[in-house]
Amino acid sequence: MLFRSLTTCEAMIIGTGGFTAALSVAALERHGLAPGQGPVLVTGATGGVGSMAVSILARRGYDVVASSGKASAAEFLARLGAASVIDRRELSEDDPRPLQKTVYAGAVDCVGGTTLANLIKRLNYGAAVAASGLTGGATFTSTVMPFILRGVALLGIDSVQTPIDVRTEVWKRLGSDLKPDRLDDMAHPIDLNGLEKALTDILRGEVSGRYVVSPTA
Q: Distance between CA atoms of 144 and 30, rounded to whole angstroms?
């Protein structure tokens, strides 16, 4: 058992994606996010980080809004705890306005690009977004308006060079208060023979959740 409360299989399902999601939630809560403040957005919600973030946030009592380009994934996201699902196009199209109507008490962004620029414009006063992804682009264009008029914050999340003391603490929490619910629903077990197809499906954007590869099966 890992940290007494995670099996080896559970730890593999969580993986780097779940660790990054946990870092994101922990950073948002250190910034002041708490349940009851309003909806929390997760972009790229069917991916490894996104699906874990949806599950962690829902378990902690947040009203989770999941953004996804996969219309067929709504049921999957609802099982993980998403209260509602929006089409990613709502945030991925250019909008020249420096600010939009406030909607979200916080956000976990796994996409970057235009999506990140738009969601910053929709954060409540004093809210933050934890950013860890760039599938929508490595750059984004913004004005300073959300930062100086609404006091929002952009929190960068890095899971590679995280200090060992922080890494250990977060993994302990992944076995307790940050442990995602319904891990089995996120896991697709395969053996090495299924790896090529799995990688092809991932590149095509046809996968929701996580693959767990058994090298001896």
A: 23
Pairing of strands 40-42, 210-214: unpaired
Measured in degrees and rounded to the nearest 5, phi and psi for residue 153 equal: -130, 145
Report the C-alpha gap between 139 and 10 in whole angstroms.
Answer: 34
pLDDT in tens, 66-107: 999 988 899 999 999 999 999 999 999 999 999 999 999 999
- Residues 139, 117: Cα–Cα separation, whole Å: 9
Q: Are 126 and 105 in contact (CB under 8 A)?
A: no
Q: Hey, how many other C-beta atoms are within 10 angstroms of the C-beta on 124?
A: 17
b/e map of 157-189 (b: 16 or more CB within 10 Å)?
A: bebeebeeeeeeebbbbbbeebbbebbeebbee
Asked if residues 180 and 57 have their Cβ atoms less than 8 Å apart, the reply is no
How do residues 108-142 score in pLDDT, each as one tens digit?
999 999 999 999 999 999 999 999 999 999 999 99
pTM here is 0.92
Token pair listed for 162? 């995280």
Distance between CA atoms of 35 and 4, rounded to whole angstroms? 27
Long-range CB contacts (< 8 A, 24+ apart) of 32-37? 32/126, 32/128, 33/105, 33/106, 33/127, 33/128, 35/60, 35/61, 35/62, 35/63, 36/61, 37/105, 37/106, 37/124
- Both tokens assigned to 131: 């950013």
